Automatic annotation (TrEMBL):
InterPro entries assigned to the protein according to its UniProt record, in alphabetical order: DIOX_N, IPNS-like_FE2OG_OXY, IPNS-like_sf, Oxoglu/Fe-dep_dioxygenase_dom, Plant_2OG-oxidoreductases
Protein name as catalogued: Fe2OG dioxygenase domain-containing protein
GO biological process: defense response to oomycetes
Similarity comment: family membership: Belongs to the iron/ascorbate-dependent oxidoreductase family.
Cofactor: L-ascorbate
Keyword annotations from UniProtKB, A to Z: Dioxygenase, Iron, Metal-binding, Oxidoreductase
Domain Fe2OG dioxygenase residue range list: 215-314
Gene Ontology molecular function, alphabetical: dioxygenase activity; metal ion binding
């Protein structure tokens, strides 16, 4: 009996110390300390990369594409619109995309609710190990090494294969798993549909990206609390996405900016739309016919912003190289294994030229 109690005490104290270390680490989350505090020095970007003037043109320059029209006689026109947007901006928005509006809203609600929960409900998910299959973290993957932190908290997890992944997802809010499972299935369907249109535009067979090249699905939910001085910091510093294609649900609060023609332009939040952007792998496979373009996130002092990126990408063992039929003279990139791209990407995240330069062909 005594030893039973003793064992229980040991177990309890082990659990308590795990929870304690989680609490200490969790204090790094911006949302856990930022209320009524000035912007700490470690969040102040150098003058050349801080946003400074926050009034950027949000003009309707980034194309908005109506996917309803892709099924009728306008299909070629839509394919051309997608290709042109992918070449010029690396970004476009899609409306009438087939993901039900109530599912978009319900997912956004459940994402927000997750971040609003008390810390006890989130503590077990906090992790600084990027290999953890579902993890809550803050700033970028380089938190321990980076000079300046980013004003965001993040929850990310893989979504495929669903039956293996879902057991690692948050258990609270209680409807999280059900809502998010439905959402990721719909988002994948939409992503594949867009990739089919891209394939058609590039003159490839419509299922070209349908298999290994789009096998990985990662959901990454960002929470940007209101910030005391948005002119000095960033939610996410400039970067390109390392995957094939990203579908972003940015809710109703602006913040996303895209680099175009030497200036930052804001991507206007459109209710019930997805922001779609070309990842590094789609640029490489298309031999630069499509562009992965740098983007960043600015914060604001009024309201919290929540966004959810759905990253579709190759399986880690996929061999990536420019598609032969898209190479005119010489390929711009050499062949490589996707996992090697990721190894090189994360330490160089903020410098797309360095990332892509490493995979350029020598010819
Ligand atoms: C990203 C990203 C944009 C946003 O997570 O890669 O670019 O609006 N997010 O949160
Ligand atoms: Ni991004």
């Amino acid at each position: 009996m005594i030893s039973l109690i003793f064992n229980q005490i040991i177990k309890l104290s082990a659990t308590t110390s795990i929870i304690k270390s989680h609490i200490q680490e969790m204090e790094k989350l911006v949302s856990s300390w930022c209320k009524n505090k000035p912007l700490p020095e470690s969040y102040i970007f150098p003058p050349e990369t801080r946003p400074g003037n926050l009034v950027v043109p949000t003009c309707n320059t980034i194309p908005v594409i109506d996917l309803n029209k892709a099924e009728g006689q306008n299909r070629t026109h839509i394919v051309q619109q997608i290709l042109k947007a992918g070449q010029e901006y690396g970004f476009f928005q899609v409306v009438n995309h087939g993901v039900p509006e109530n599912l978009m809203n319900e997912s956004m609600d459940v994402f927000k609710e997750f971040f609003e929960m008390p810390w006890e409900d989130k503590a077990m998910l906090y992790s600084e190990d990027p290999k953890n299959s579902c993890r809550l973290s803050t700033s970028s993957v380089n938190y321990a090494r980076e000079k300046i932190h980013h004003w965001r908290d993040n929850l990310r997890h893989p979504c495929h294969p669903l039956q293996d992944c879902i057991k690692h997802w948050p258990q609270k809010p209680v409807r999280y798993r059900e809502v998010v499972a439905t959402y990721t299935i719909e988002a994948k369907k939409l992503g594949l549909r867009i990739l089919e249109l891209v394939s058609e535009g590039l003159g490839l067979e419509s299922r070209y990206f349908g298999d290994k090249l789009s096998e990985s699905e990662i959901l990454s939910i960002n929470h940007y609390p209101p910030c005391p001085d948005p002119s000095l910091t960033l939610g996410v510093a400039k970067h390109c996405d390392p995957n094939l294609l990203t579908l972003l649900h940015q809710g109703d609060v602006s913040g996303l900016q895209v680099f175009n023609n030497g200036e930052w332009i804001g991507v206007e939040p459109l209710h019930n739309a997805f922001v779609v952007n070309i990842g590094n792998q789609l640029q490489i496979i298309s031999n630069n016919k499509l562009k992965s373009v740098e983007h960043r996130v600015v914060t604001n002092s009024r309201v919290a912003r929540t966004s959810a990126g759905f990253f579709i990408g190759p399986s880690e063992d996929s061999i990536i190289e420019p598609e032969k039929s898209l190479v005119d003279d010489a390929p711009f990139y050499r062949a490589f294994e996707f996992k090697d791209f990721l190894l090189h990407y994360f330490p160089n995240l903020e410098d797309n030229e360095v990332v892509m330069g490493h995979f350029k062909s020598q010819a």
